[in-house]
């Protein structure tokens, strides 16, 4: 029986609003953060393990050229961050964050498992003056050598600085092919290319349900104004990198030692562990990430799940369109470039260029003056966020190829790591630096000296530029084989990791604090949309760093080193200029944020 208050008996105080996370803590934070930390750790174990392999898988197994491989990679990572825009909205309105996270985990795990079925390695060939020749690959000492098979002769392929190609017979030049007359390609099974693209499409869809909503659940642990929020998101971000650290060591090792399927299979297992942590949470997450009240919630969720699966073939078609898009004609200008964009590029840029102003207009109409200014500040920072991730996300494309081609991967002469494993530097430095950065922000906040969010963003932009300039400096000390010591690459990742900690966990926290409460999930999606656009642009920049290959291998390492140095220098200068601009804008932005720190 429920007691009903009367005029003579005062009502019992309503305590239903008390945050249960206050009752127990984990390192000073709500205990639920530990489970969400672990869930994200295993999800990132799967994702980053797969990502460490993807570009190398495309260039070495399917033998796509640099332009195609980095285009596919950029398109994939762009879709991975585009889908949260929809996934966040569906969770806000219908599913709730918890159900969305579980569904996304299942779809991503299936995608990784399907990647295990890659079929036989592609067969390379070359076209010289319109005539096709088979290409053979032989292992010699510590490298692979490519030969053109011309009847009974095998002619070694050697690229020249001017873009021409020499065909060598016993070390002597037997034939010289002019620039543009030597084209490399490979015969691939259309079936297995289709399987590859379907798997990538599934991962893209699944991530849309998982990524924004696990972050939203972390935000729910803290009441408005709780100063622990920033450090909580930093700890959560350390979970991301703890998972990626181990996967970026293990998955590439398994791929080299036992085959690509083993690496992708381990990623699938990690993803299923992530699902199990939410599915079997023992009631620890009750009250968090729940669906909105309503009698149709259960029926609506199955409609949403079915519709999400129908999106997979649509994404597959986007990938096909991306693979067959032609480069813009030389001298066509900006309009020509936009017209030549594949459907995926038009979709991404259109969504961002229309979505950001639309949300601001809605905020102006539906919100107060203060809410509008806070949303305006958020959108300005989101735009600069695109620049940061465009540079930072060279890690999975051009920097991985740089590691494979122009980096001496020997560690103190004791052992050698693989190109894919170099990505673990970022995760390792994040794990090491995250506690220090969290303590530092907290200590500075107590003294009233903590930099504002715009200042942190500006520092991050300048930092990512500094990392590339360090690698450019190291290129001046390349050995006779045009390879740079691995420690220059490690130094880049150290600087990039510190820069990342200035922007990413702070950015996630910023969205939950600056957004109008009823669209916080949608705004989290916009945050990931900005990263999506950056991923696509990152793929485009990686294409500028493309080098001609034969059967997945560069035939002149000096050419590739020069190309990477030129591209890395250019993007560094641009980032420094924009970083300084953001520092100058930090004063009006701080006013618009109305005390949000």
TrEMBL record:
Keywords, comma-separated and alphabetical: Membrane, Peptide transport, Protein transport, Transmembrane, Transmembrane helix, Transport
Keyword Transmembrane set for record: yes
Protein's cellular compartments: Membrane
Top-level taxon of the source organism: Bacteria
GO MF term set: peptide transmembrane transporter activity
SUPFAM superfamilies: MFS general substrate transporter
Xref: Pfam families: PTR2
One Gene Ontology cellular component annotation held by this UniProt entry: membrane
Biological process annotations from GO: oligopeptide transport
Main subcellular location of this protein, as a coarse class: membrane
Residue stretches spanning the membrane: 70-91, 103-122, 191-210, 231-255, 261-281, 302-322, 334-362, 374-392, 424-445, 457-478, 484-508, 520-544, 564-587
Family under the similarity heading: Belongs to the major facilitator superfamily. Proton-dependent oligopeptide transporter (POT/PTR) (TC 2.A.17) family.
Protein name: POT family proton-dependent oligopeptide transporter
Organism: Sphingomonas kyeonggiensis
Lineage, top ranks: Bacteria, Pseudomonadati, Pseudomonadota, Alphaproteobacteria, Sphingomonadales
